[in-house]
Write a structure and sequence with these properties.
This protein has a single domain, classed as TolB, C-terminal domain (Neuraminidase, 6 Propeller), CATH 2.120.10. The chain is 1% helix and 50% strand.
Length: 294
């Protein structure tokens, strides 16, 4: 498994020591990687061609940013709800909150499907109560709940043909798969993968390549595992840090896997690269992020 022939040499591209680096997003037009530091309340941007880096202070904990159709700004999932965000200044404009009564919940991770809908989980921030679930937010800003409750819903990811949605129960150690239908409904919930927390850590963010392989980050497991469409472990990318949070494909031909990590409560002397961003070349490709149609 250590001789995984789908990947090349791992490279650290930014020793940023993010407290909780998350939500990697590749913007093709800019050839740039955006990601958030949830706990540090920052949005970071890494420009691949120039190696330039910039950071923006955010007003509150933010779990993800996603592009918007025909707009130059982002839509962001934050502690107090969904916002439109000016990606140059970080200025936020409130849009909606799907659960205003759950004051301890926050958005944790999210993706768009090809119809421009957002699929995103809201997590219990103290991580003690199962009050979180997976929401679908439509372009007209209506919303619906589809899976839960969980302490920390994570992922999600959607197959290239838009027919399968993957959703993670981090504390339950499980990746779930659903049939995803053109009308935006999901059904046939089934176990895709389950981790042994003592040996492998906990499942966190994930992405799907164009061959329908699933690439899963392990919080506390120091790795990315690549699964076949059937849930078979194909190989892994080992990292020099324990808290691996998420990954996405980017680069000029979308064949580079970018990986975010966290330094939360870790000994930086022992793990000097904790919270850094890494990349690894692969022999596959991923998809560019779909944009929110709202």
């Amino acid at each position: 498994m250590n001789d995984f022939d789908l990947v090349g040499e791992l490279e650290c591209i930014w020793e940023i020591q993010a407290i909780c680096g998350e939500g990697p997003l590749w913007i093709e037009a800019e050839q740039s990687l955006y990601f958030v530091d949830i706990d540090g309340q920052k949005l970071h941007c890494y420009e691949e061609t120039s190696n330039a880096r910039r950071s923006i202070e955010l007003e509150e904990k933010t779990g993800w940013v996603l592009p918007r159709c025909n707009h130059n700004d982002f839509v962001a999932g934050c502690e107090s709800g969904v916002y439109f965000m000016d990606k140059s200044s970080g200025k936020m404009t409130f849009v909606m909150n799907p659960e205003p009564d759950q004051v301890e919940n926050r958005f944790n991770d999210g993706k768009c499907d090809r119809e421009g809908r957002i699929w995103a989980g809201r997590s219990h921030d103290p991580e003690t109560k199962a009050t979180g679930c997976l929401f679908r937010i439509d372009p007209d800003l209506s919303h619906s709940s589809w899976d839960g409750p969980y302490i920390c819903p994570n992922g999600p990811a959607i197959s290239p043909d838009d027919s399968t949605l993957y959703h993670v129960d981090t504390f339950g150690g499980t990746v779930w798969a659903f049939d995803k239908h053109p009308d935006g409904t999901i059904s046939n919930r089934r176990e895709f993968a389950r981790l042994d927390s003592k040996k492998e850590g906990f499942p966190d963010g994930l992405t799907v390549d164009n061959e329908n392989r699933v690439w899963l980050a392990h919080w506390g497991g120091s790795r990315i595992t690549c699964f076949s469409q059937q849930g078979e472990r194909l190989g892994l990318v080992e990292l020099p840090v324990p808290q691996v949070t998420s990954c996405t494909f980017g680069g000029p031909d979308l064949s580079v896997l970018y990986i975010t990590t966290a330094a939360r409560n870790l000994d930086i002397v022992k793990y000097p690269l904790a919270g850094a961003v890494f990349k690894v070349p692969t022999k596959t490709t991923g998809c560019a992020s779909h944009a929110f149609a709202g």
